[in-house]
Every structure is written in structure tokens, then in C-alpha cells.
Amino acid sequence: GENVEQHPSTLSVQEGDSAVIKCTYSDSASNYFPWYKQELGKGPQLIIDIRSNVGEKKDQRIAVTLNKTAKHFSLHITETQPEDSAVYFCAASRKDSSYKLIFGSGTRLLVRP
Amino acid sequence: NAGVTQTPKFQVLKTGQSMTLQCAQDMNHNSMYWYRQDPGMGLRLIYYSASEGTTDKGEVPNGYNVSRLNKREFSLRLESAAPSQTSVYFCASRKNTEAFFGQGTRLTVV
Which of A64, A111, B8, B75 has the most neighbouring CB atoms within 10 Å? Predict the structure, then answer.
């Protein structure tokens, strides 16, 4: 089955700097790669996603890149703000009837004011 | 619009006790999921239901059972709780590709 690895497990950056979180996946049939943000005491929320027919997607300060050949995808946050502090999860899924999401182990991002 | 609602929010069980975690969604989604979240291990899929009337095992189904009662509700049952089942449990429903999560149930088994 699918296996998703996520690095780093913790990341501390100065406000205004950029943050990059990387994931690798094992199932070459996976074609949907979302990123979720989880704030303390809440459930994860989708912040951006990318499909396998796209190499890069951007939404304001966040962007995701995908390298299908290497089975890598990454989340980039620019101009970080204290409210970006949270746990971020990558995930991978096949486009089938179940749409099972397999998650990485998470990255705790701390943005220092 | 409540989204995905989980009950209870907190629960303490003794080893060997049983309980059912409830989940309901009001978004008319076909697919529903149960995940557990443990430190350093992310979210692991326990069971899922692609549509009303169907359920399938995920990555870590042992010790759990599920019921898709109707389109809205998907419950998770622990028949004989074990300390290894101490975790935070999340229910989710899915429309197209986006999954929507509940607030979670923090379960402690002593």
C-alpha cells in the first residue's frame, strides 16, 4: 500500500522567512496530493492541493510543487507569520471510489515573532 | 452549517470496556472515514465507507468495528478497549477530493 514520509518533524523559522516541508510517496498510482493544517485542539483543514498533471500550484503565500518522477512533493510558505504556526500534514491518494488519504507523520512549524 | 460533528469530545475508559464513537455530517457527502492520530505518527486510517452501505478496512483496523448507519452517520466501535487504543480519533467526510474533519475525540484507556 501507499507510504508517505514527511520531513522535517519540527521546523522553527523567524517571522518573514520562508518554510519548506517535503514529502515522498511510494505508490506510483497516487495522483492527488493535499496539504492540511492542524491548529491546536482542532481537526486538520485543507490549505492547498495538487494533482499529478500539474507541477506547481500557488495560492497567495503558499505553494506546492510536485515531481512525479522522483515521487516528491513540497509545501512552500513565504513571508511566514506567527499565525502560520501549526502542524502541517501532507497526504497522497489515488483517484478511485474510496479516495483514501494516506498521511505523512506531520511537521510542527513554529514561527518566531 | 455544522459540518462534521463528533461525540463525545473526551472519554476515559477502563481496559476491557466497550464504547462507540459517533460521527455525523450534514454535507450530503458519500464518503466517510475514521482516523486515529498519535504523536509522531500522523493520521492513520482505521476504516472508511465509500458510500452508504459499504465499509472497508484501512491501515490499522484491528480492535475496531464500524457501522455506516445511513448517509449522515458513521460510527466507530471499540469492543474491548486496550491501552494501545489511547489516541485522538478523527472522523472525516469527503466531497470530490477535499476531506472535512471533525474536532476529534480524545480517548484515554487506563
Answer: A64
Amino acid identity, residue A89? Answer: F
In sequence order, the 6+-apart residues with CB closer than 8 A to the CB of A47 are A35, A36, A37, A59, A62, A88
Q: With a CB-CB cutoff of 8 Å, which residues 25-64 of chain A face chain B?
A: 32, 34, 41-46, 49
**Nearest partner of B43 among B28, B27, B59, B32, judged by Cα:** B59
How far is the C-alpha of B72 from the C-alpha of B103, rounded, in Å? 16
Kindly report, residue by residue over A51-102, the tens digit of the pLDDT: 988 899 999 999 999 999 999 999 999 999 999 999 999 999 987 767 788 9
Query: Kind and range of the H or E element at A110?
Result: strand A107-112
Q: Does A97 touch chain B (CB under 8 A)?
A: yes
pLDDT tens-place string over residues B35-64: 999 987 889 999 999 999 899 999 999 999
Asked whether the beta carbons of A50 and A107 are under 8 A apart, the reply is no
Alpha helices of chain B — where are they, by DSSP H?
none
CA distance A106 to chain B (A): 5
Chain B contact present for A98, CB below 8 A: yes
Q: Which residues of A touch B94 (CB under 8 A)?
A: 99
